[in-house]
Amino acid sequence: MILDFGDTLETEVQAGVSIDEKTDALVVSIVTLSDAEYITLTGDPYDHLDSEELAQDDLREIHTTGELRIETDDLEDDGHQGRLTAVAVDGEAETAVTSDAYDLER
């Protein structure tokens, strides 16, 4: 393969993230950032967050491994079902590393 000047090879950003749906919560486990600078969570929980314990900023630019739990009580009624997506970010590159539809009990 020959590239002209200015051409780039786009690579996917890698990270180890899982989303586990419990009866009354979503549990996001970030096992490894791999080559990602950080993880951003998008989707219905972000759009419908209504919590004293969690802020939208808590779902953006997550730089560490560990678990994040989004409880039913942290969400408006419209956020109890939908889709949560984890995006790995490295500079300008973004890759959706996992996405899960969910339906939490009210």
Textual characterization of the structure:
- The protein starts with 15 loop residues before the first strand and ends with a strand.
- The chain is elongated, with a radius of gyration of 16 Å.
- The longest helix has 4 residues, at 44-47.
- The chain has one helix at 44-47; strands at residues 16-21, 25-32, 38-43, 66-71, 81-90, 93-103.
- 4% of the residues lie in helices and 44% in strands.
- The strands form two sheets. A three-stranded antiparallel beta sheet has the order 1-2-4, with no helix packed on it. The protein has a three-stranded antiparallel beta sheet with strand order 3-5-6.
- The chain contains one helix and six strands.
- The chain is mainly beta and 106 residues long.
- It has a single domain (16-103), classed as Immunoglobulin-like (Sandwich), CATH 2.60.40.
Mean pLDDT: 92
Main β-sheet, in a few words?
A: 3 strands, antiparallel
**Annotated CATH architecture:** Sandwich
The CATH topology turns out to be Immunoglobulin-like
Poorly predicted runs of 5 or more residues: 1-7
The order of strands across the largest sheet is: 1-2-4
Number of helices: 1
From the alpha carbons, calculate the radius of gyration and give it in angstroms. Answer: 16 Å
From the spread of the alpha carbons, the general shape counts as elongated
| Percent helix | under 10%
Percent strand: 35-45%
Q: How many strands in all?
A: 6
Could you give the distance between the termini?
55 Å
What is the H-and-E element order? Answer: EEEHEEE
Q: Indicate the structural class.
A: mainly beta
Q: How many domains, in number, for the residues? A: 1
Q: CATH top level?
A: Mainly Beta
